[in-house]
Amino acid sequence: MKTVINYTTGGLGNRLRPLSSAYAAAKESGRTLCQYWDSKTTNGSLAKFNELFENDIKELSSEDLDNLKSYKIYSEISIINRLSSKYGCHDLRHLAGKGIGSMSPRGSYTPNDSEDNIIFYCNNFIPNTNREFCHEFIKSLRPVPLIQEKIDKETVELGLDKNVIGVHARGTDFNVDVGYYINQMRDYGGSAKFFLSTDDLEYEKEICSTFKDRVITRQGRAHITKENEEEGWEYNFVISKEKSQDAIVDMYLLAKTDIQIYHPESTFCEIAKILS
């Protein structure tokens, strides 16, 4: 049995883009799609895949990876070393150093690779995989019933549709302040309604204060908070299982709207736009 294995870690968008590429590679080459889903890294997602989605994807453990007799890793040693040193995830560095597999840059992947087991690791789409198949996978994702019920209920309660402007105000990185989003929102007429998706409570307060009842926002959204208020965001927050599940709700609600205002580097918003 030939496999394509995605080593899935990081934030939600950073997980779903390469996982969708693994799906595309499996579909193009007749391989079995597998994944290692990291639910240990605190700055990634402490939810397991089956706590977020119903899709049946064969999951492998660290032991399963270690027991592979042959493999090719499509990644770069620099990001594998960063994964190990920054996050304590040593599986790929161990595999890269075993001497029984090989490593190639992501851009060198081709669907006719003859290796029995190929492993993807990055936070982006893998080059040379069919992007239509990638989007097909993302659109095929089925949130678990607990999450889907919240999506359906809040869509109706909040009145979300394509007449509402979607705003994703990412506040934990990208080095932009809330004014970046507020200035764009001001470009819309006074009758425009906005749905605000944000991980930052202070951004939410500022935007709601500025646009008042023109902003639709969720009650009880699970914002990200710093572990140490005196430090920056990097490696200074925890994405609990509940926050990961709530992020799925936010992503699918954002996808119900006309998404117009966001940071171009947001992978979360990129996935929402594909769903939309």
Describe the protein.
The protein folds into 2 domains: 138 residues, Rossmann fold, CATH 3.40.50; 131 residues, Rossmann fold (3-Layer(aba) Sandwich). The protein is of the alpha/beta class and 276 residues long. The model has no long low-confidence stretch (mean pLDDT 90). It is elongated. Strands 3-2-1-6-4-5 form a 6-stranded parallel sheet, covered by helices on one side. The protein starts with a strand and ends with a helix. Helix 8 links the parallel strand 8 and strand 9.
Got a strand count? 10
| Biggest β-sheet strands, sense, barrel | 6 strands, parallel
Strand order of the largest sheet: 3-2-1-6-4-5
Give the termini separation: 35 Å
Question: Key features?
Answer:
276 residues; alpha/beta; Rossmann fold; 6-stranded parallel beta sheet; 10 strands; 39% helix; 14% strand; elongated
Summarize the structure.
The chain has 10 helices and 10 strands. The chain is of the alpha/beta class.
